[in-house]
Design brief:
By secondary structure, the protein is of the alpha+beta class. The protein has eleven helices and nine strands.
C-alpha cells in the first residue's frame, strides 16, 4: 500500500469516528500544515508538493485548498499551483514589525491629500479583497468593509488589475465571470471592457463611475509585484453628488505615488 493510500484509509477511518481525527491529524491541523506548505519559499507550489510537505492525502489537500482559496488565504495560480492569498498577506502585515506602520502611513497621507475614503485591496482569482479602509473626512460612509470581496470588472482597483494582466489570462477571467451587471453603468461586454482597459493602460489608472454601486465614484491604480504583475491596488472613493469626475481624476498623481510607495511593501 502506498503512503497516499494509507493516509486515505486512515482518513476514512477517522470519518467513521465522526471526522475529528485521522492519521494526518484534525481538520485544523491539516489546514495549518497546508498553509505552511503553501507559504514556504519558492512558491507558488504544485498540489503534489503541498500534499507531500503537509503529509495530507491528496483528496483532503485539494478540498482544503479549495476552501482556503475561497476564503482568500490561498491563491490558485493555475497549472495546479498555489500561492499565498490576500488574507494571509494581510495577516502577515498585521503581525510584522515594520511594514504595517509604513503601509498605514502611505494610505493615511493619500487620505489626507484627497480628503476622501481610501481602500487597499489585494487580487485573488476572480476578485479583489479589501484589506484596509480609511474613511472619508466627508459626512458619508460607503458600504465597503475590510474582508469584503468585490468583482474585478466593476471596481476601479479591479479594472486597474485587469489592465495589467496578460491578454490570455484576461480572456479566461472574462469568460469565467461572465461580467455580471451590478448597476446600469456596469460594463457587461468583453468589447466594452477591453476598450475601457486600453484607456486604463494609457493613463495608468482606472475609474469606477457608478459601475459597482450607484452614487459611488472611485479612482484606482494597481500595485505591481516583483515581475510587474499586479498584486493589488489602491483606490480613492467618493460620492457623485460631492465630487465630479474631473475632480476625482485630479487625485491621480497622489494615487499613483501611493501605489509606487506600496509596491516594495507588498
Amino acid at each position: 500500500m502506498s503512503t497516499d493510500e494509507g493516509l486515505e484509509s486512515a482518513e476514512a477511518a477517522g470519518a467513521a469516528r465522526g471526522g475529528r481525527t485521522s492519521a494526518a491529524g484534525t481538520a485544523l491541523e491539516k489546514s495549518m500544515r497546508i498553509l505552511e506548505a503553501v507559504a514556504a519559499p519558492g512558491g507558488p507550489h504544485r498540489l503534489t508538493d503541498v500534499m507531500a510537505a503537509a503529509a495530507v492525502p491528496k483528496s483532503s489537500t485539494f478540498r482544503i485548498l479549495a476552501s482556503l482559496v475561497e476564503q482568500g488565504f490561498v491563491r490558485s495560480e493555475g497549472d495546479s499551483r498555489y500561492g499565498v492569498g490576500p488574507r494571509l498577506r494581510a495577516l502577515s502585515a498585521l503581525v510584522s514589525g515594520g511594514e504595517p506602520a509604513s503601509i498605514e502611513q502611505i494610505l493615511r497621507e493619500l487620505q489626507q491629500a484627497t480628503g476622501q475614503a481610501v481602500h487597499l485591496a489585494l487580487h485573488s482569482g476572480e476578485t479583489i479583497t479589501y484589506i484596509r479602509k480609511l474613511e472619508s473626512e466627508q459626512p458619508f460612509r460607503t458600504a465597503s468593509r475590510v474582508g469584503m470581496r468585490m468583482p474585478l470588472h466593476t471596481t476601479a482597483i479591479g479594472k486597474a488589475i485587469l489592465a495589467g494582466l496578460p491578454r490570455a489570462e484576461l480572456r479566461e477571467l472574462v469568460s469565467a465571470t461572465g461580467l455580471p451587471r451590478r448597476t446600469p453603468r456596469t460594463l457587461t461586454t468583453p468589447e466594452g471592457l477591453e476598450a475601457e482597459l486600453e484607456t486604463v493602460r494609457a493613463r495608468g489608472f482606472a475609474l469606477d463611475d457608478e459601475e459597482n454601486e450607484a452614487t459611488i465614484r472611485c479612482i484606482g491604480a494597481a500595485i505591481p509585484g516583483p515581475q510587474g504583475r499586479p498584486v493589488g491596488g489602491v483606490s480613492v472613493t467618493t460620492v457623485t453628488f460631492l465630487v465630479t469626475r474631473t475632480e476625482i481624476e485630479a487625485y491621480a498623481p497622489a494615487l499613483l505615488a501611493a501605489t509606487r510607495a506600496l509596491a516594495p511593501l507588498l
